[in-house]
Amino acid sequence: MAKDKNQYVCSDCGGISPKWLGKCPHCHAWNTLIESVAETSSAPTKNRFASLAKTAEVTVLGDIEAIDFARTPTGQEELDRVLGGGMVEGGVVLIGGDPGIGKSTLLLQALDSLQRSGQRTLYVTGEESGAQVALRARRLGLDGSQVSVLAEIGLEKILATLEATRPDIAVIDSIQTVYSEQLTSAPGSVSQVRECAAHLTRFAKASGQVDGVGRGRATSIVLVGHVTKEGALAGPRVLEHMVDTVLYFEGDTHSSFRLVRAIKNRFGAVNEIGVFAMTEKGLKGVSNPSAIFLSQHAEPVPGSCVMVTLEGTRPMLVEIQALVDSGGPSPRRLSVGLDKDRLAMLLAVLHRHAGVACMDQDVFVNAVGGVKISEPAADLAVLLSITSSLRGKPLPKGFFAFGEVGLAGEVRPAPRGQERLKEAAKLGFSVAVVPKANLPKNLKSRDFEGLTIHPVERVEQAMEVVRGLS
Ligand code: TYD
Ligand code: MG
Prior knowledge:
Family: Belongs to the RecA family. RadA subfamily.
Radius of gyration: 26 Å
Bound molecules: thymidine-5'-diphosphate, magnesium ion
Number of domains: 3
Keywords: ATP-binding, DNA damage, DNA repair, DNA-binding, Hydrolase, Metal-binding, Nucleotide-binding, Stress response, Zinc, Zinc-finger
Largest sheet: 9 strands, mixed
GO molecular function: ATP binding; ATP-dependent DNA damage sensor activity; damaged DNA binding; hydrolase activity; zinc ion binding
CATH superfamily of the largest domain: P-loop containing nucleotide triphosphate hydrolases
Oligomer: single chain
Protein name: DNA repair protein RadA
GO cellular component, one term: cytosol
Distance between the termini: 82 Å
């Protein structure tokens, strides 16, 4: 029988090469060959299938009982919100984020409350020693915690421990430190991360079955992943495909607020966010986060416009700041927390449709508090903050705006506009420029929830309204 051998698989075309090459011999892409273990039994020859004794059973969809997933609340309300209600039995969650943002802290807190509610937990630490974890636990006020800790980075040993102890929830902190003896590449390399994640995922999925049949209690696994400088989870995107749920930590490490966002969730809604505040005693959930991303100006300042963003189920108010300043021969366009390409597009729309030119100006745009806004409803606020900075004129007190801007200069409605309006009214905002289509159909006056609303259909109209206000 052929011995297990390593092979190199192209991450672009899937072509296989027996040795490492700089260029894939199949698709000629550079630097795409990744080491992996050759599975000798994986060649799907006719012979192999014919020799199988039994075929698998095929079931009609209607006959399958739709069992709701058993969810275990983690005791961290905001974490449960992004998970869609709690940890799913046998589910695999990948949680990514910058170093030092609070991944280990959050998971240790969650494990402790799970353990207290009678779940069996295991915390596998590859980055810190047991003593360091204990120190953190003490800092978090979790003295005498019953969470089991395993300081190990060998995949085979971790799997054997999981098999023997069969915890309900296991955390692997982090997947980049785990290595498999079957591969020669270093821990953290693409092939190691992929191989180890695949094995752990397979374990979680298979752990509910005792001897291939029946339903035992399956292990849920949480993988901690680091984020590279480019902002992607280190290791291949395949990691995201393998797991059931992908969560990202966002936020500025200098501010105390952290967002956990669901990027993918087989068991719940995506784009749901959980909001936490980093305190002396670890992460605390913020149940009413709508006003945390506003900076407190005593008087309105130029270049600032508040918008209402709706991420997941909760509306939040975020301040967009812009600074427009005379630039050199090649002016800079920089955005933090907002899409850079979209900024370039918006500047073009502003020029073409509202006649406001920023060609010779540096333009910087920032979403306050380290929050990332991906929805186009921020467009109008971005444009208004830019023009406000350009003119050096602040927007009126209590002003906010939202709405998507199209290339033709039209202002498109944002989803669930009335909810956004209500939230802003609740927080004491009073004047708004919003897409006309976001207003209730039969609204007689321009008064809604005590707000003075200026409905607009085009960018130039929005500019005119604002000029009249300030
Ligand atoms: P950590 O969970 O170690 O981050 P990660 O695992 O994502 O790398 O978080 C460490 C940061 O959190 C560190 O900068 C200190 C801060 N922190 C607090 O402010 N309060 C606390 O109670 C703890 C435990 C950490
Ligand atoms: Mg950590």
